[in-house]
Write a structure and sequence with these properties.
alpha+beta, 8-stranded antiparallel beta sheet, 7-stranded mixed beta sheet, elongated, hydrolase, transmembrane, Pept_S26A_signal_pept_1_Lys-AS, Signal peptidase I, serine-type endopeptidase activity
């Protein structure tokens, strides 16, 4: 759907541009004939198409911004909760990582490389028509291990430095997560996950690459190891990240389909970095004037 909109936008811009150029040629031709008093040769064509062409400079500017600089996206699920809520409308910076061909997504001019902790929007590797949004956890050259029982992640960087995401307040860890509070307790029946009757959602503060953000871990739900993505001759819960690949996860760790389940994200599939929330609508709110979350508007995404 996104690619269809891009194609329509390009076709519409090119069409209005051609009409705008033809109008400009008509005007020059008419001015020449008026100057030489050849009034019978003047071409005067007025219709809605020529009127539409007058807006070409504005349409062209919007198209350039939409294709190469910023693109709006909508958050349809809570896999990035609590950082991004269902109903958030965000702006994604496409220029930050480079200028790409809007048709085939090949990089024309490369700017900055994606960094650890960036929240990125990308095309799902197995269906390019679907867009995902996740946080970068692992970088090229990293080795990542994940424990589905303790929910701990360990990252071994290229320089042999180890980064461990702990669920405690150990100050001697490079990355620690401190348990803030238990907030929600839900009852689940047997049909949900077919494993547990109750879960508790715990909020943690995670420090990653000198920046802090909140995540949610569901205690009471065990991640099934057999669902984890595994390369040929590889081990489950163990990922070696090659060049131009990234390991991504959702902040709602137990309600996110991410690199743990379908593999790594290619640099060429990255659309851009999520930077701002420009609108947020709570679809579960019945009172119409309370649907818009004013406190989240124009908020920078961290």
């Amino acid at each position: 759907m996104r690619q269809i909109i891009i194609n329509i936008l390009i076709i519409f811009t090119v069409s209005t541009g051609l009409i705008w150029i033809s109008n400009y040629i008509y005007q020059i031709y008419n001015q020449y004939n008026i100057k030489n008093k050849n009034y019978e040769k003047c071409l005067i064509k007025k219709n809605w198409i020529t009127d539409l062409a007058k807006f070409f400079p504005i349409i062209f500017l919007i198209t350039i911004i939409r294709l190469f600089y910023y693109e709006p996206f909508h958050i349809p699920s809570d896999s990035m909760n609590p950082t991004l809520l269902t109903g958030d409308f965000i702006l994604v910076n496409k220029f930050l990582y480079g200028i790409k061909n809007p048709i085939n997504n090949k990089i024309w001019i490369k700017n900055y490389s994606p960094q650890r902790n960036d929240i990125i929007v990308f095309s799902y590797p197995f269906n390019k028509n679907i867009n995902y949004i996740k946080r970068i956890i692992g970088m090229p050259g990293d080795i990542i291990t994940y424990n589905p029982f303790t929910k701990k992640i360990c990252i071994f960087k290229k320089d042999n430095q180890a980064i461990t995401l702990e669920h405690n307040n150990h100050s001697n860890k490079l990355i620690s997560i401190s348990n803030n509070y238990k907030k929600i307790i839900k009852n689940l029946n047997r049909n949900n996950y077919k494993t547990y009757y109750t879960i508790t959602l715990d909020y943690y503060n995670e420090k990653l690459h000198h920046q802090k953000h909140n995540i949610i871990i569901s205690h009471g739900i065990k991640n099934y190891s057999f669902l984890y993505y595994k390369k040929l001759s590889g081990l489950k819960r163990f990922w070696v990240i090659p060049e131009k690949k990234y390991f991504v996860m959702g902040d709602n760790r137990d309600k996110s389909m991410d690199s743990r389940f379908w593999g790594l994200v290619s640099e060429s599939d990255i659309i851009g970095k999520a930077q701002y929330i420009w609108l947020s609508i709570n679809k579960y709110q019945n009172i119409w004037f309370k649907k818009i979350r004013l406190c989240r508007m124009f908020q920078k995404i961290k």
